[in-house]
């Protein structure tokens, strides 16, 4: 198989050679009990790393704080495999020499697995167009109901974007560091303890306190990473890690809102890159959304209801 265009798991657009991407590692769910969430088929490691598509199904020139943590998590949980009958495809997978190159190769050959309390689980990855992600992070606006006073009527709606989440991160980190001696919360789950703190209306804290949900892969224990960085007094690295982790959480929320699912990019081998079908899809979605919005506005327009009566 020659070179081909990878598929963006978020936009379904083709990813071309040299395109900057975010890479999310995925762990296959062996037991599918429901289809309620974006994590129904695969549990993502929400800490991504950054790469460039190499035109052959993998990445190159990779970077990011997530990469060494992901490789370490894979080594610790790796299902080691011996060389198989086919020396070209049944490659050995061992802890001793497991690195980024082996990451791409083992996934490509379908030989990367990890141990878990639910048995061995296959590991895959998905690439997202960085340009596409950057646009979402810059432009996606969320409406939120927040409390503004002691009375139950003291609420209002606010609009926020990812920049507002990151704007609240320094004070959330302050809270984590200042309460490092709270041994019950600190030793076991420093991020979850944000829900028991006095910090209010902090967007970063609200995202991070849900970091330990069963829906996400624990290949990287983000609470252990945070705890170790607090102990090392490494605020800069802690900021980098939580910034990238919040990126993953924010994107997961966007996927929930757009009914998308964490899965590897398909259409391996396809060199297609025509745009007519995509533009037709975009126009069709816009037309249906506009029709639905007009119908909603009509149904909930009190003046129109009275006129119809």
Features:
309 residues; 11 helices; 10 strands; two-stranded antiparallel sheet; disordered C terminus
Structural commentary:
This protein has 309 residues and is an alpha+beta fold. The protein has two domains: 6-135, no CATH class; 141-257, no CATH class. The protein has eleven helices and ten strands. It has helices at 66-77, 100-108, 130-139, 162-167, 169-178, 183-188, 203-208, 222-231, 235-257, 276-299, 302-308, and strands spanning 6-7, 14-15, 20-28, 42-44, 49-53, 59-63, 113-114, 121-129, 142-147, 155-160. The longest helix is centred in the C-terminal third of the chain and has 24 residues, at 276-299. The chain is globular and about 70 Å long.
Furnish the topology, listing elements before pairings:
Elements: E1 6-7, E2 14-15, E3 20-28, E4 42-44, E5 49-53, E6 59-63, H1 66-77, H2 100-108, E7 113-114, E8 121-129, H3 130-139, E9 142-147, E10 155-160, H4 162-167, H5 169-178, H6 183-188, H7 203-208, H8 222-231, H9 235-257, H10 276-299, H11 302-308
Antiparallel strand pairs: 1-2, 3-4, 3-5, 3-8, 5-6, 7-8, 9-10
Helix pairs in contact: 8-9
Tertiary shape:
globular
Q: Return residue spans where pLDDT drops below 50 for at least 5 consecutive residues.
A: 305-309
The total beta strand count reads 10
What is the string of helix and strand elements?
EEEEEEHHEEHEEHHHHHHHH
Q: Level of helix content?
A: 25-40%
Q: Summarize the main sheet.
A: 6 strands, antiparallel
Count of helix runs: 11
Rg, rounded, reads 22 Å
Terminal CA distance: 66 Å
Mean pLDDT: 89
Strand content: 15-25%
The total number of structural domains is: 2
Structural class: alpha+beta
